[in-house]
Amino acid sequence: MNAYLQRLRPLAFLPALLLLLTVVVAEQDRTELSEMALVIGLGLDANPKGGEPWELTVELAYKQQNDSPGEKQVFTAAGGSWEELREELGKVLDKNAHWSSASLLILGGPVLETAEGKELLRSIFLDPKINGELLLAVSAEEPSQVFSASFGESNYLSAGLEQGLRLQAKTQEKQAVSLFDYMEQVLALEGSLAVPIIHLEKQEDQAEAAIAKESYLAF
Fold it and tell me: Can you give the residue ranges of every domain in the chain?
């Protein structure tokens, strides 16, 4: 009987050990989340300042706590490839960028009109951290200017535009255009794709983003 109890006694600590592990893992998740900058939207264009060919702009939600809504911040970095753009962006951030939360990708014309730009989009699509279903739009203005504008009542331009693009597509009885659609129809099948256009309208003290009725035909 005593030998049985001796074998059983260590098992009595198992529930307490499991509880402790759960608390530790939860605490680690909480710490990691507070160190994340959630990427809500991305913008890509030719670098207007020269030097590195491409400019990446991101709209971020900085979360200080798990249950906080996040604070909007916009950052820009330049580089020659997707890897360089991510690396340069990381140098100006004090948090780790979480890419899978992105819902919108705003493109300048040079990205869709050059072989180098198309290769950049291919690299982004192949990045496992990027959601291939994020929506595409084209802007005549620099994406960095677009992310400084507002759209409706949304705290984040990207979230508001995503809803607007989906609503426009539903009204026109078609699907909203995603990065996956571009990869499939343009780069894989060598066809064309009508991509929505974003433009800016000047208001009293704030530029307002708007979705144009016409589309940009990408080849």
Answer: 34-218
